Amino acid sequence: MVHISQLILGDTGCVSYVVVCKKKRECAIIDSFEGFEEDIHEELKRLGFPIVKYVIDTHTHADRKSASSYFAGENGLDGVVKSEMTKYKGKKINTKDGDILKIGNAELEVLYTPGHTYDHNCYLVEGNLLSGDCLFIGDVGRIDLGGDPREKTEMLYNSLRKLEKLPGETKVYPNHVGAVHAIDSEDTFSTISKEMKNNEALQVKDIKKFYTYMTDGWPAKPDSWEEIIAYNLK
């Protein structure tokens, strides 16, 4: 049985995760951020210091500097787990859609879900979806932080169709929660069935209308987002 620790980082609304197989005492750290390393250290201590087998980024972040290379180095790993589509220049372990990462007795399945970024992965483990910035509670990740908006809109549209095929009871754990990210819900997790019913972005089943949805009335871009992306690619 896998355990998922959801770490909401201060008042940022950003979330990091630790996925643990308690029986084998192995874990993966997912989407850690600079300035919040102690949150991860404290959670590993609370969990009895499981062996860190993987350090994972769901995608190249544009609003926070990643601490994944720090944790990969600290734990003597071969690199940060990334999509094979990443342009990350550091030590990395490339993944493709359908790959399985073993964490003790648990299997973490890679779902390649581009759109928010070209290198976005979700991760599925025992009926739980770590959805990164692809699917939020009540919304989806933006497509206007670099790249071709039309191309990325089509990618995201197809990625959402992929996630809709998961069992309705699949729990959804996103990378952002709460009003700080203009997300209406204060819940910290959802389910696929709830999102199919309540998430406006999932109601749009026409690609042209979806492009309008994805480009109309979105919040301001994060401060220094281009510099943050450049930093995270190093």
Automatic annotation (TrEMBL):
GO terms for biological process: glutathione metabolic process; hydrogen sulfide metabolic process. InterPro entries: Metallo-B-lactamas, Mito_Persulfide_Diox, POD-like_MBL-fold, RibonucZ/Hydroxyglut_hydro. The keyword Metal-binding applies. Residues 13-176 form the Metallo-beta-lactamase domain. SMART domains: Lactamase_B. It holds the Pfam family Lactamase_B. The keyword Transit peptide does not apply. Keywords: Metal-binding. GO terms for molecular function: metal ion binding; sulfur dioxygenase activity. It comes from the Archaea. SUPFAM superfamilies: Metallo-hydrolase/oxidoreductase. This is Metallo-beta-lactamase domain-containing protein. It comes from Marine Group III euryarchaeote CG-Epi1.
